[in-house]
Design a protein that fits this description.
Oligomer: single chain
Strand order of the largest sheet: 4-3-2-1-5
Radius of gyration: 38 Å
Number of helices: 7
CATH architecture of one domain: 2-Layer Sandwich
Order of helices and strands: HHHHHEEEEEEHEEH
Shape: elongated
Distance between the termini: 157 Å
Length: about 325
């Protein structure tokens, strides 16, 4: 009983009790503030960042409490933690690497919430960046095009040190994309080129103006050539048809919609030429096997040879 009372009255017990009290107060206040933010703020981005800010402040307060209570030279707990730090670091190396990855993501600008990325072999939109994991809303998989498939994927932040990080939207939120248009031999190729150039110019005009400004910033920031932003139509001839390639720039999340609009107008205007310009296609005709008429004729019995009387001398 006396030993128990001594432990309770000891300096270490007092510090542990104070630390637990501080953590409890911080958790309660953090929960109340987050619930208030959810009720009062309608904008998703502002609400998310406000909640993350409250969480970060809570971590800072808890860390300050740890340093304040257990940072003294006379603390036995500090000595014990120092002695066991090597073993803990080895056991939690992946956790430490993920935390270091979070610092690299925040300081290095690898990506942020709302960016479209490919990290750890997973492509998707970033919906949360935690201390240890990045959460993605996955794209593709069994779904064609850049559309959500419904899976939420959590990737360890340590992947930023192990694999490339593809960011589709941070520095330059546009992509170059292409469509291929096969045209029949004998069509009016000049008319076909005029149609394609007119359509792609009309559909990408607004994107081009925005992209040129952003691309100028990229050229100033990185050692990169000043690439062509305006759409381009090129032509090749192969064994089956004449193939036009339409290259254009599009907003990073609008590839599928842009292709739909382009092909819709291309089909409409090709049809309006009344055969002067026509799509080419490969037609495969499977010929049926002809009916085989097999007749088996009866085999006639051999006719016996007539005997010839021999002459007698």
């Amino acid at each position: 009983m006396d030993l128990f009372l001594q432990i309770i009255k000891s300096d270490v017990a007092r510090k542990i009790g104070s630390f637990i009290l501080v953590v409890t107060i911080v958790l309660v206040l953090s929960s109340v503030v987050k619930k208030t933010i959810k009720r009062q703020i309608d904008d998703n981005n502002i609400r998310y960042r406000a909640q993350k800010g409250v969480t970060f402040i809570s971590y800072v307060i808890v860390l300050a409490a740890i340093v304040s209570e257990f940072g003294g030279k006379s603390s036995g707990l500090t000595v014990a933690l120092g002695a066991g730090s090597a073993g803990v670091a080895f056991a939690l190396q992946e956790v430490i690497a993920s935390f270091a990855g979070w610092i690299a993501i925040a300081a290095g600008g690898f990506y942020g919430v709302g960016d479209r990325v490919q990290v750890g072999g997973i492509k998707g939109d970033v919906i949360d960046v935690g201390l240890l994991r990045t959460t993605l809303m996955e794209l593709g998989g069994w779904v064609d095009g850049d559309l959500y498939n419904g899976r939420i994927v959590r990737v360890a932040n340590s992947f930023v040190f192990k694999e490339p990080v593809f960011n589709y939207s941070r520095d330059f939120p546009f992509l170059w994309d292409e469509i291929k248009v096969p045209v029949k031999y004998g069509s009016d190729y000049k008319r076909a080129r005029q149609i394609l150039e007119g359509i792609v110019e009309e559909e990408t005009h607004e994107f081009n103006k925005q992209a040129k400004g952003r691309w100028a910033e990229v050229v100033r920031q990185f050692s990169i050539e000043n690439a062509r932003i305006d759409p381009m139509v090129t032509l090749i001839a192969n064994d089956n048809w004449v193939e036009f390639t339409v290259r254009y720039i599009v907003e990073v999340k609008g590839r599928r919609g842009m292709k739909d609009r382009l092909f819709d107008k291309i089909l409409e205007q090709f049809d309006a030429t009344e055969g002067r310009v026509a799509f080419a296609s490969m037609t495969v005709h499977l010929v049926e096997t002809p009916t085989l008429d097999v007749r088996i004729l009866p085999i006639e019995a051999p006719v016996p040879a007539k005997s010839t009387p021999s002459s007698v001398d």
